């Protein structure tokens, strides 16, 4: 028979909630490791008193009772595993694994039995339900009634908070059954009472979470935080881990206590207790115990009289009482030489400590992430500036943590640390980037600077599908526009718009000859620069929709035929993941199967060439005729417009050479006989003459007489 048995996906019932993990049975005892918190429960083989196999909601379960009254429940077994477990218990633990099913009659009256830490409500010989008395926070009595109140369970959406038992009135041996019931519950309930004197007291310690200054009283079984507003009693059994972390300024120290379950303040839960100490603060401590008791209990880890730094004394006492190791930073050193990295998490600035087996962030909110629960990490460019980057961590449960605003100088140190710990890096890509990708064609402050930051070699933020993303298309568009960007032409564009408006109203003035000479040069430049752009647009617009489509490659033909099959084999797969999976399948495909799709692609290419020949003979000629007719029509319109402009220019030049007398006689025509060209030329001439200060000759006496008539 094997010396060990291992079971995965086993659930341990703790305070009404089911925690999944891994169960291992060996000659030495039973070990259960919680996959969520990493907490390990170890039951020695010599402590086991009874084992019960029963059917539960999650299949079959195993209940273990120890000699000191503790009860451990594990669910998730299969029915076929009973024989294997029964034989193992007989061979190594010398225990019979009894089969005892729960009663499902639905009766609400029965017998209450107290066994160790467990209250069992039975009907006959079968239990209906069991209550671990360690979950009871309060027990009150009434007339023929006992009320049990329970600790709130933070892991469960719905928690049982109260149970009431009706006790029939009986007088046996002069003992009140209600009081006897209550005393049995209180003797095993988890109701912390500060009895006796504290071992030692630390006064006015600065606490970051929960915030405030607290007196810490150290008792043999629990820790008492006494503040001005709140009091907390923390059993040592709820302490999961201890951390001692140096501050970045090298003048302060963090002492972090990880708690499970957390302490509560209203609706707020504190999973971490964080104390802040100054390295310069010293203390002399005397334990409230004699030397023999200190030596017997702590075995040399503590002495009756101690002195040193305050943080050293607190951490030393907690380590001895909790009996857990203190975790300190490992060999990591940042750019500044500190063992932490300054960053932000959820809009609050703090410090991220890379440890030997995980990461811890202090202090608001504190976060501890173990390496074995990390799925992958990701290095991302900062959203606001190129001087920083983001460090993202995603766990196997799908929770994502983003630590932002990390200085770019820390990238190399952090990347080497993550790489040395063999963590999966999501965006591990090219180590060298072509120089033209990071070239900055725009002046300072333009879009080119952002483009250079994205393709910066030291970030290596590339993924296989980045070049097919909309972001890359946008950046390519920016890069395309940068090529035609010429500094100094923006002012010319503004001037051109002004000059074109001015030429329509004041083109005949003699004093504007200098401006008229400059205008044609600018217009010629505009036509020269913009004509190719118009031709490109016309060529795109003039594409014939009736033209045959280009044939697809062998890979694309295969992908179109197998796309639905890939989707059905991988439900919920994204477009990018589908393309990646298809590429892998195509690469792994045999040469014979690929030749089949190559033949289909060759057939499609021949059909395309044949269709193109027919199109060039028939459809293309018709479409080309339509295009030629459109171009001819545009050319005629342009010629007509040019002739009209020449005619108006000739009429303006003739009007300027007429005699003053004729001009004066024409000025007296009625409005309906005056053309728009003459009126505009007359107005423009009047404006020019007024600007230049040239007076027109006075009319003759005959003209004045005829005018008066």
TrEMBL record:
Gene name of the encoded protein: Ssrp1
Compartment(s) of residence: Nucleus, Nucleolus; Nucleus; Chromosome
Keywords assigned by UniProt, alphabetized: Chromosome, DNA damage, DNA repair, DNA replication, DNA-binding, Nucleus, Transcription, Transcription regulation
Domain HMG box: 548-616
Keyword Transcription found: yes
The protein, known as: FACT complex subunit SSRP1
Residue ranges of the annotated DNA-binding region, renumbered to this chain: 548-616
Pfam families assigned: HMG_box (PF00505), PH1_SSRP1-like (PF21103), POB3_N (PF17292), Rttp106-like_middle (PF08512), SSrecog (PF03531), SSRP1_C (PF21092)
Coiled-coil blocks: none
Start and end residues of each stretch annotated as Disordered: 484-555, 612-709
Tagged with keyword Transcription regulation: yes
Compositionally biased region (Acidic residues): 488-499
């Amino acid at each position: 028979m094997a010396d060990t048995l291992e079971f995965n996906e086993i659930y341990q019932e703790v305070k009404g909630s089911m925690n999944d993990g891994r169960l291992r049975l060996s000659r030495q005892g039973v070990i259960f490791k919680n996959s969520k918190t990493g907490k390990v429960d170890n039951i020695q083989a010599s402590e086991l008193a009874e084992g019960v196999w029963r059917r539960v909601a999650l299949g079959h379960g195993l209940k273990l009772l120890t000699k000191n009254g503790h009860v451990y429940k594990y669910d998730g077994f299969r029915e076929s595993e009973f024989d294997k477990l029964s034989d193992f218990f007989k061979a190594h633990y010398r225990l019979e694994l009894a089969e005892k099913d729960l009663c499902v009659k639905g009766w609400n009256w029965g017998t209450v039995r107290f066994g160790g830490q467990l209250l069992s409500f039975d009907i006959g010989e079968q239990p209906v339900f069991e209550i671990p008395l360690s979950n009871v926070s309060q027990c009150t009595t009434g007339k023929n009634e006992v009320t049990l109140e329970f600790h709130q369970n933070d892991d469960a959406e719905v928690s049982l908070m109260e149970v009431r038992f009706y006790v029939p009135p009986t007088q046996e041996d002069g003992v009140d059954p209600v009081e006897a019931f209550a005393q049995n519950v209180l003797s095993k309930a988890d109701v912390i009472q500060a009895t006796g004197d504290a071992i030692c007291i630390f006064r006015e310690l600065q606490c970051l979470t929960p915030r405030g200054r607290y007196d810490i009283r150290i008792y043999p079984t629990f820790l008492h935080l006494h503040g001005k507003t709140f009091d907390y009693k923390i059993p040592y059994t709820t302490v999961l881990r201890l951390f001692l972390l140096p501050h970045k300024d090298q003048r302060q120290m963090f002492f972090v206590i990880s708690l499970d379950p957390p302490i509560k303040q209203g609706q707020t839960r504190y999973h971490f207790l964080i104390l802040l100490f100054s390295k310069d603060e010293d203390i002399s401590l005397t334990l409230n115990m004699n030397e023999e008791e200190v030596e017997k209990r702590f075995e040399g880890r503590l002495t009756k009289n101690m002195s040193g730094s305050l943080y050293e004394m607190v951490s030393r006492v907690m380590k001895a009482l909790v009996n857990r190791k203190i975790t300190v930073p490992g060999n990591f050193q940042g750019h500044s030489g500190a063992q932490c990295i300054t960053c932000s998490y959820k809009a609050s600035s703090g410090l991220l400590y890379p440890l030997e087996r995980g990461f811890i962030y202090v202090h608001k909110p504190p976060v501890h992430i173990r390496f074995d629960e990390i799925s992958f990490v990701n290095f991302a460019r900062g959203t606001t500036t190129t001087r920083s980057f983001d460090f993202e961590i995603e766990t196997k449960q799908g929770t994502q943590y983003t630590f932002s605003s990390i200085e770019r100088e820390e990238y190399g140190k952090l990347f080497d640390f993550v790489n040395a710990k063999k963590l999966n890096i999501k965006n591990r890509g090219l180590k060298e980037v072509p120089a033209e990708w990071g070239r900055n064609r725009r002046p300072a402050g333009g879009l080119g600077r952002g483009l250079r930051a994205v393709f910066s070699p030291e970030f290596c933020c590339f993924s296989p599908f980045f070049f097919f993303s909309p972001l890359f298309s946008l950046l390519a568009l920016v890069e395309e526009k940068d090529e035609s960007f010429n500094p100094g032409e923006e002012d010319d564009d503004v001037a051109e718009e002004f000059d074109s408006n001015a030429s329509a109203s004041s083109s005949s003035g003699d004093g504007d000859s200098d401006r008229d000479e400059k205008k044609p040069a600018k217009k010629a430049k505009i036509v020269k620069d913009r004509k190719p752009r118009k031709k490109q647009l016309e060529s795109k617009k003039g594409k014939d929709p009736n033209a045959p489509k280009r044939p697809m490659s062998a890979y694309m033909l295969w992908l179109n035929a197998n796309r639905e099959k890939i989707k059905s084999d991988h439900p919920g797969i994204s477009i990018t993941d589908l393309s990646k999976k298809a590429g892998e399948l195509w690469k792994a495909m045999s040469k014979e199967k690929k030749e089949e799709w190559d033949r289909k692609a060759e057939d499609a290419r021949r059909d395309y060439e044949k269709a193109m020949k027919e199109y060039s003979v028939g459809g293309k000629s018709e479409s080309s005729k339509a295009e030629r007719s459109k171009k001819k029509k545009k050319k005629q319109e342009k010629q007509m417009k040019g002739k009209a402009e020449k005619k108006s220019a000739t009429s303006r030049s003739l009007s300027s050479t007429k005699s003053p007398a004729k001009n004066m006689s024409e000025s007296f025509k009625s409005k309906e006989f005056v053309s728009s060209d003459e009126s505009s030329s007359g107005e423009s001439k009047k404006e020019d003459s007024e600007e230049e200060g040239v007076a027109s000759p006075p009319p003759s006496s005959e003209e004045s007489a005829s005018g008066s008539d």
